[in-house]
TrEMBL record:
Belongs to the TonB-dependent receptor family. Residues 1-20 form the signal peptide. It is found in: Cell outer membrane. Residues 54-168 form the TonB-dependent receptor plug domain. Keywords: Cell outer membrane, Membrane, Signal, Transmembrane, Transmembrane beta strand, Transport. This is TonB-linked outer membrane protein, SusC/RagA family. GO terms for cellular component: cell outer membrane.
Length: 1011
């Protein structure tokens, strides 16, 4: 064991870019095994980092949380910290963060497996009815986390078999430590953080023109004074003139001080930015812990209360966790861990296009509308004393149909939408495991373990009386009121039995490993139901208040089981060469009997060259590693046989003579997807080589990796001719290749008794290619976007191809249609790709006595984004780019050429025809932007009080911190939005910017007391 020297010991755990500091004091939180380079790998197995023949990267808890505000989702706090890990975080309130390791390997996307203390847990992403309910990893209490180890490649995750396709994120929880005298230790932490909108991620409106689709006012009101264009949800209207007065929407609101008054035609004083709140989050936690040899206990309670950007949005999350380790005898060891999360959320932001208030702000808006007046109108009119059909039950919208008809044309009053048409959800989550280990011999132990993961989601959506009619509920018919609810229960139970062994073959050759088995059962029970035909009584949100017959509920129920066995062998030759082999066999209940048993092998090797070449005087560590492994994935339930869903009852009637109800006939929806009874598991094969070097006593550390992955037999639904009676068929098809490079660099420029400076850099590049799909098929549709753009897997290109309309070119010039004077376009063209060229992060951390300073720069190069906001918003005249100079006041000749090659000379009048920018005249390719960004992701300043100040008190440690997140978008190419802010998780996290919430610069204050 290396002796811990005085001062500060800089630790750069190989392939980790996170630097921890250990001081020669008994209060150190860095354990001896960390100094020796011991990390937690698959199945919770602890290994010496130097012996591993594959790339992994460990992040300590301090690097996850100390330098940033609490996001409520630990996934987002991994951003920029791990080479090869791409994190995409939506701006949705309580929304999802998508994790992707080493590129997309499956045609349908895919997230890594999450494991806590060796047991898998659910990380399902849920988004329904345009509401993002987040990914389940947000239930994990970050106060429980000791470290996170990212297992990147197939060799690292092979022991998880058919679940290891997309990599594994291994979370290790803290053990109780307590005080030196054996008494209880108490830690109290409290933080408050406030968000401020980054205006570069929200529309910069033009302020020269108001409501309308042409520069003409609408109808005339009293005294010959013009009415504003109420029904037009655009700002391509008449030029503002403070000397001109018109009747605006509030002139027809009896509760308004402007009732029956004409007001100056000017840009609004309070634009949409005034609609948002400054989100505030309060987090408080208490930890009680006690520990000594052979037994320790830790209990944590954490509470988070958060108000979102949108009015009437609030999240309250309570987390309780208990961990106990106890040795019943010197040979019998037990462990127990349980965590429970209770979360209530109100007012989650709507995502996507329809009925999303922020979509209106970004695409369909009038720059003359004052939001504070809309707020006043809502609260004045929603009063039960006056709320009625006459004022749309309080929905007094800026977008009234006409002077005589106050019904909203397209958009609700934003405050009515927030306070009446809000969603609520309650989530319960419990993860528990119990483990017993018995030491049969000095070198053989047996472990039995049971883990149980349960989540319950109860979500409700409301559509209040007076709302704009919209598609709603089971039938999807347009209604102006309604209620729906979703109940989802998921469980996963794992039974594990394994034997650990370690034998010394000779004095210099050792072998160790595991032999074990696992039984996993997953269960889902989901029910969705809604009213039909609107509500009978306003304000009562219940299925029994349905205006029409309620359709049969949409129910899903399944239980699946996977049985597994595995064996590993790790050989250590002279502490210089390590050779590992693993083999796992799985049996899946979702595959046919002929194909449901399959196996996954791996072999890895690492060579410690610094021991062989005796380079320790200048290179204290040098390792070469290589591996080959296979992992895979099984089918979802109900892929082997056709199944039907209920569409209601036909022929139900009452007998007028007897009053008896005649039984009807059940109606079932047609099958549109053909099942496949001969499915096989999909497989991914990967080869990886790498090297790790430490120079000058760890003042410089470098880790390099190269990998090549081939994934085959994808389980996908391919489109087929509707003439066959179905539109799709489940099949094994497709191959995706990924090739990549990863670099991790650690530098310690200054290291002294009082001052340390550490620099941690990570960079990775992944090249992805769809090699083939199926004979005769070259494109697979993955997602469709508003604006005629789609996300695709296209043969010969990287996964994530954007297809839409593009210009027609003649000799490199855009071609003009001589009959219209606008551009000719071609549909179904490749217009971009969402795959980034590379990602990276740079972290600097400084320590001077009790002071600490750190900041993280997070970067992404490439990855195209289609902006539906710009596609529509430029046409409707919202953005400042649409009102530059005298563009709207004179005829415009679009740059381009006519079919004969001559320059375009056809002038377009702006006074009557409206915009010549946007979706009406330009192809979708015009609104595809490079998704690159450079962000100051995290920053913190902290101070730990000297022990001398605390002498004589019961306080053991006090630390104050000022932290920040997303403080500065240093560079981006996507205008008026954050290139990260997609509409959700999973497939919805790629390439589509539409109606996203603005990004906030979050600043917080943390204080921690230890007793």
């Amino acid at each position: 064991m290396k002796k811990i020297t005085s001062g500060v010991l800089t630790l750069v755990l190989s392939s980790s870019l996170v630097v921890a500091n250990a001081q020669q004091k008994k209060e150190d939180t860095v354990r001896v095994q960390d100094i020796e380079g011991v990390v937690v790998t698959a199945l919770g197995i602890k290994r010496e980092k130097k012996s591993l023949g594959y790339a992994s990267q460990e992040i300590k808890a301090s690097a996850l949380s100390d330098g940033t505000t609490n996001t409520g989702n630990i996934a987002s706090q991994l951003s920029g910290k791990v080479a090869g890990l791409n994190v995409t975080t939506s701006n949705n309130f309580g929304g999802s963060s998508n994790l992707l390791i080493r590129g997309v390997k499956s045609l349908g996307g895919g997230n890594p497996l999450i494991v806590i203390d060796g047991s898998p847990v659910n990380n399902t992403y849920t988004q329904e009815n345009n509401v993002d309910y987040g990914n389940a990893l947000s239930d994990i209490n970050q106060e429980d986390i000791e470290s996170i180890n990212v297992l990147k490649g197939a060799a690292a995750s092979a022991l998880y078999g058919e679940r290891g396709l997309n990599g594994v994120i291994v979370i290790t929880t803290k053990n109780g430590k307590g005080k030196e005298d054996g008494s209880w230790g108490v830690t109290l932490s409290s933080s408050v953080q406030v968000g401020f909108i980054d205006k570069s991620t929200f529309p910069d409106y033009q302020t020269r023109y108001g409501a309308g689709y042409s520069q003409k006012f609408g109808s005339q009101g009293a005294n010959g004074i013009a009415n504003a264009n109420f029904g037009a949800d655009a700002s391509w209207g008449p030029k503002f003139d403070p000397n001109l007065s018109v009747y605006q929407w509030d002139a027809y609101d009896p509760t308004s001080p402007n009732y029956k008054k004409a007001t100056p035609w000017v840009a609004a004083k309070n634009g949409p930015l005034s609609f948002f709140n400054n989100p505030t989050t309060y987090t408080n936690s208490v930890t009680l812990e006690k520990g000594q040899k052979g037994k320790n206990i830790s209990f944590t309670y954490d509470n988070m209360m958060s108000d979102g950007l949108m009015p009437n949005s609030h999240l309250n999350k309570n987390n309780f966790s208990l961990k106990v380790n106890y040795d019943l005898t010197p040979k019998l060891h037990t462990s127990f861990y349980s965590t429970m999360t209770l979360q209530d959320t109100k007012g989650r932001s709507v995502t996507g296009y329809s009925d999303n208030t922020v979509t209106g702000f970004r695409q369909w808006w009038q720059t003359n509308v004052d939001l504070k007046e809309q707020e006043r109108a809502y609260f004045a009119n929603v009063n039960p004393a006056i709320a009625s059909v006459a004022n749309n039950y309080g929905n007094v919208s800026w977008n009234r149909k006409s002077a005589t008809n106050g019904t909203p044309a397209y958009w609700n009053n934003p405050y009515f939408q927030a306070y009446e048409n809000y969603s609520t959800d309650r989530r319960f989550r419990n993860f528990t495991y119990a483990q017993v280990t018995y030491d049969l011999l000095d070198n053989v132990s047996v472990t039995g373990k049971v883990s149980y993961d349960r989540s319950n989601l109860f979500a409700e959506n409301r559509l209040a009386y007076g709302s704009v009619s919209q598609a709603f509920g089971r039938s999807g018919k347009n209604v102006s009121s309604g209620y729906d609810r979703r109940d989802v229960t998921r469980t996963e139970t794992n039974y594990d039995l394994m034997a650990n062994y370690k034998f010394q073959i000779t004095d210099d050759i050792n072998v160790s490993g595991v032999v074990g088995g696992n039984i996993r059962r997953n269960h889902l029970n989901s029910t969705y139901a809604s009213t039909e035909g609107g509500l009978v009584v306003p304000g009562i949100y219940a299925l029994t208040n349905s205006g029409g017959n309620v359709l049969a509920a949409d129910e899903q129920l399944f239980t699946t089981q996977t049985n597994s066995g595995y064996v590993t062998a790790s050989f250590d030759f002279y502490k210089m060469f390590y050779l590992d082999g693993t083999w796992r066999i799985d049996q899946s209940s979702t595959l046919p009997a002929a194909n449901n048993v399959y196996n996954y092998p791996s072999i890895t090797g690492s060579l410690i060259l610094s021991e062989i070449l005796k380079t320790k005087n200048w290179m204290n560590f040098w390792k070469l590693r290589a591996n080959y492994a296979e992992v895979g994935g099984t089918a979802d339930p109900y892929q082997l046989a056709n199944y039907y869903t209920s569409a209601g009852i036909f022929g139900v009637a009452n007998d007028p003579a007897t009053g008896a109800t005649a039984h009807g006939v059940g109606i079932y929806q047609s099958i549109i997807t053909q099942s496949e009874k001969d499915l096989k598991p999909q497989r991914s094969k990967e080869f990886e080589v790498g090297t790790e070097m430490h120079f000058l006593k760890d003042r410089i550390t470098l880790d390099l990796a190269y990998y090549k992955t081939k994934t085959i037999d994808q389980i996908i639904t391919l489109p087929v001719s509707s003439g066959t009676g179905v539109t799709g068929k489940v099949i094994n098809a497709g191959r995706i290749d990924n090739t990549g490079y990863e670099v991790q660099l650690g530098l310690v420029p200054i290291k002294s008794k009082d001052f340390n400076w550490n620099i941690d850099v990570n960079w990775s590049k992944n090249t992805n290619r769809v090699v083939d799909l199926y004979p005769g098929i070259t494109n697979l549709l993955l997602n469709s976007f508003q604006g005629g753009v789609s996300l695709n897997a296209r043969v010969g290109e990287a996964w994530g191809t954007l297809i839409g309309s593009d210009y027609v070119y003649l000799n490199g010039q855009k071609l003009i249609d001589p009959s219209t004077g606008i551009y000719q376009t071609n549909s179904n063209q490749v217009i971009g790709n969402t795959t980034p060229d590379w990602i990276g992060g740079i972290r600097n951390s400084f320590n001077y006595r009790g002071f600490s300073l750190s900041f993280l720069i997070d970067m992404r190069k490439g990855g195209d984004v289609f902006s539906t906001d710009m596609y529509y918003g430029m046409d409707t005249g919202l953005y400042k780019e649409s009102a530059i100079g005298d563009y709207r006041d004179k005829p415009v000749v679009l740059p381009g050429v006519l079919p004969d090659g001559s320059p375009n000379n056809i002038a377009l009048s702006q006074n009557s025809t409206g915009s010549n920018y946007g979706y009406e005249t330009q192809p979708s390719s015009e609104f595809v932007y490079d998704g690159s960004f450079i962000k100051l992701r995290e920053a913190s300043i902290g101070y730990t009080l000297p022990k001398s100040v605390l002498a004589g008190t019961k306080i053991h440690d006090v630390k104050f911190s000022i932290v920040g997140r997303n403080l500065w978008i240093i560079h981006k190419n996507l205008p008026h939005a954050d290139p990260e802010a997609m509409i959700g998780g999973g497939i919805n996290s790629y390439g589509w910017s539409i109606g996203s919430m603005p990004t906030t610069r979050d600043v917080g204050v943390n204080v921690t007391f230890k007793f």
